[in-house]
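Raw record, unedited: Acyltransferase
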Amino acid sequence: MKKVKVGLVQMTCTKDKQENLDKAIVKVREAAAKGAQIVCLQELFTSLYFCDVEDYDNFDLAEAIPGPSTDALQVVAKELGVVIIASLFEKRAAGIYHNTTAVLDADGAYLGKYRKMHIPDDPAFYEKFYFTPGDLGYKVFETKFAKIGILICWDQWYPEASRITALMGADIMFYPTAIGWDTQQDEETNQDQYNAWQTIQRSHSVANGVPVVSVNRVGFEQDGAMKFWGGSFATNAQGKLLYLASHDKEETEVVELDLDQSDFMRKHWPFLRDRRIDSYQPITKRYIDED
């Protein structure tokens, strides 16, 4: 049986970029000590979630990829023999910035990057001000331990993105993410939002017959106006929860995934086999009407 141990790092962040990077490295070491072979860090883990405001100074947080953060993490990946999934703010060129995740293999090799395809523009999530939509398409990475697909936060709402990633051969889908509650909201609304977030990602697992690993930040930011809701989780290939993190604590957890289960699930629930690909052309339209 092919089994892989994945580490989920759910943590709080500060204004100090180096402090956050150092902390993440400590957490990667903790995960590796627990047996993790692949460690996923949350979205934009080297900073506070800065997209709550449109501030040109925040572009100074960006860096090249490969660059300083990937250089530091490559050393750690090689030393520990683990794959590291690192979500970073990429400066590609003057005026061109992306929300990007780099993948570092267990020998320290830089395997490449995925640029976030879907960019939100909601109150307190003004990402279109900062990020150019991804232009690398959907990506999978052949690591030492598994072929992994990476999608980022807002991508998590789109079944098309997960489907394409699965069809490219991903054994596991990882979602580094940063999402939270307005602290003025009532508890019922909070729970409804979290349930929707978890449900849509678990549905990707069911529809595609692959495990999903979603890693979210936690803690109060934006001067206390936003509570990032944590709740990181991992599923098996049938969408069953194998691990669920708290809403209010830092956690570093390792979960074992049985990758052979994908073949079993796809044989018994043959959703991929039964797709009517000949009928799907209309999905490329913005909306199906006469215009």
